[in-house]
Amino acid sequence: MSSHVLFTESSPNVGGQELQLMQQMRQLALLGYQPVLACRPGSRVAAVAQEQGLQVLPVRFRNSVHLPSIAILRRWIATYQPRLAICHSGHDSNNLAMAARLVRHRPFLLRSRTYQPGKASAWSYNQLVDATMLPSQYLRDALLQNPAIRAERLHVVYPGIDFERIDRDARADLPLPVQQWLHEHPGPLLVQAAMLRGEKGHQTILQAMVLLRARWPHLRYVIAGEGPELAHLQSEITRLGLADNVLLAGMVQPVAALLARADLVLMPSSYEPLGMSQIEALGLGVPVLASRTGGIPETITDGQTGCLLPPGEVQAWAGAIDHALLHPDKMQSLAQAGCQDVRHRFSPHTNTARLLALAGLAATAVK
User: Fold this and answer.
1) Does pTM surpass 0.70?
2) Taking the CA of residue 213 as centre, how many other CA atoms within 13 Å lie in the half-sphere pointing to its CB?
């Protein structure tokens, strides 16, 4: 019986989804499986995976029906005969589904869907793959608003967080440019780690920073991440006169080293099926302010393990940041309660066991 597990990812950037799949690959390797990641050569995903010692299969994924990509995947599947293949983005899921159906014994096709852009297609959930794992009950309920989607094909699988690794990473040095900037700009530190996309709410915090400037002139906001909104955020920081208060740090690895140094970790998303950085921050005992939207309330209990706020309401966010900075002991108490909660509910073992069970595979590979 093959112990190979194939992962596919056509996105070139690295965000929470991509880091989660690499976490799953590392966990599967510990269980005796042989995970391989099919991704675009030269992409940031490929680079980070290789830095982590993960095996990469170069596949270009130029579009949803890219014949060379389908051919590479078909040959690999026919050669290694994986029992399980896990796909993520649009192009790779389509190419994988076609490639798998061109071999005699195809793997179980499990798609990870972390958000649903636009109207959900019943065909993609009912026919394209064998099952779809979702990060929250919120997203599952949203998809089932389409009555044509078969409920038994949708499964909530909470992400697994390697808290032991995060603890080690939290003690690591920050990248030198980030260290230097923090040294040159002392003051309370706000951190947000997320893809640079409009729904992540960076603009809300930038506007809140303007309102907070009089009381907190040395307040710092470090934005860690990559994405299409980079140029826009750079322009907004300049326009609002926040160049001395805000750092666009790019991809910070390990991000736990930055989260651990924060006074507050922020998750101001307007849409978030679950979110990861707020869970990681709470696991480190760092106070969190997050939006009351999507699946975030499945990770934070307002007033008990963190604070939930209405997305996009600048005044509310400015007031909450101000209150949190003025009451650090209260915030630390919430963070400690949150730490105990997330370390119990979001373990990598639970996550990996769940996805293996969906494919009918054993918790450890058969040698």
Assistant:
1) yes
2) 13
